Amino acid sequence: MLQAKNGILQLPGGTLDYIRFGRGQKTLVMLPGVGDGLKTVKGMALPFALLYRSLARDFTVYVFSRRRLLPEGMTTRDMAEELNRAMEALGLSSAAVVGVSQGGMIAQWLAIDHPDKVEKLVLTVTLCRPNTVVRSVIDRWLAMADRDDYKGIMLDTAERSYSEKRLKLARLEYRLLGRFGKPKSLERFRIQAQSCATHDTFGLLERITCPTLVIGGKEDRIVTGEASVEMAGRIPVCELFLYDGLGHGLYEEAPDFQQRIAAFCK
User: Fold this and answer.
1) In this structure, how many other beta carbons lie within 10 angstroms of the beta carbon of residue 193?
2) Which of 17, 80, 150, 185 could be 109's S-S partner, Cβ–Cβ 3.0 to 4.6 Å?
């Protein structure tokens, strides 16, 4: 049932990794956050399929990374254009699109610039324009990247993402990743983080015409829960759901997260 497959696309701009799993009649596109800058989805088809197996029952799911080599100054809008080309290359005329964090920023631009591609939109722990909290976080991560401090980025992400209940395990996991999973370069992460700092769809959200679900966490210490409220208030056909007691990592912690997505996208 999982039908997990790793794939590579050769686009005009470069090489892009993606994965596919499930065999449902409906198509679901998922876009990960800025952590994609540290590791693409290459080789991750089976782990993703197992993690999101409840979605695999109803959807054929595609998860797209950004291209392997990113040019300096690439924006979230540029990334959305490349996603549009990737969908066309795979014959995906339209899909329900789920974007998490930076993936949600890219998904906004896809829905604005290519409304025909997006049947339904789920924006999770993301924002439409930078606020003081996210600017501070990004500045901190960029400084760590300049020092080649991969472990620091991982631990800081964990501390800002999870509830106290989940944090103890996350600290152990991220320490191990920080020791053994370091990429050859943090340049790709740096470019993606900078694109978050310049992302701004605030004045264009009314152009998102598809049904939209905004999911946020009231304890989000990276983009804030207020960012979800602001975004939802400007999208014409939109539902808003905020989790109490959860933050940026709610997509891992909330037991009903996948069911909520499936119910909305079906």
Assistant:
1) 22
2) 80
Handedness of CA 43, 44, 50, 56 (dihedral sign): negative
The CA distance from 82 to 166, in Å, is 35
Q: What is the pLDDT of residues 168-216, one digit of tens each?
A: 776 777 666 656 678 889 999 999 999 999 999 999 999 999 999 999 9
State the chain's mean pLDDT as an integer. Answer: 94
**Residues with Cβ < 8 Å from 132, sequence gap 6 or more?**
none
How far is the C-alpha of 112 from the C-alpha of 117, rounded, in Å? Answer: 10
What pLDDT is recorded for position 111? 98
- In 10 A of CB 235, how many CB atoms? 25
pLDDT in tens, 34-43: 999 999 999 9
**Whole-Å CA distances, 247 to 184, 215, 216:** 30, 11, 7
What amino acid occupies position 96? A
> What share of residues in the chain are helix, strand, coil (percent, to 5)?
50, 20, 30
67 vs 209: CA distance, rounded Å: 28
At 155, list the tokens: 């631990």
Give me the residue spans of the domains in the chain: 5-129+200-265
Q: How far apart are CA 248 and CA 170, in angstroms?
A: 13
Pick from 123, 124, 174, 161: which is nearest to 253 by CA? 161
Domain boundaries 5-129+200-265, corresponding CATH code: 3.40.50.1820
Contact 227, 126 (CB under 8 A): yes
pTM over 0.70: yes
Alpha carbon distance, N-terminus to C-terminus of the chain: 18
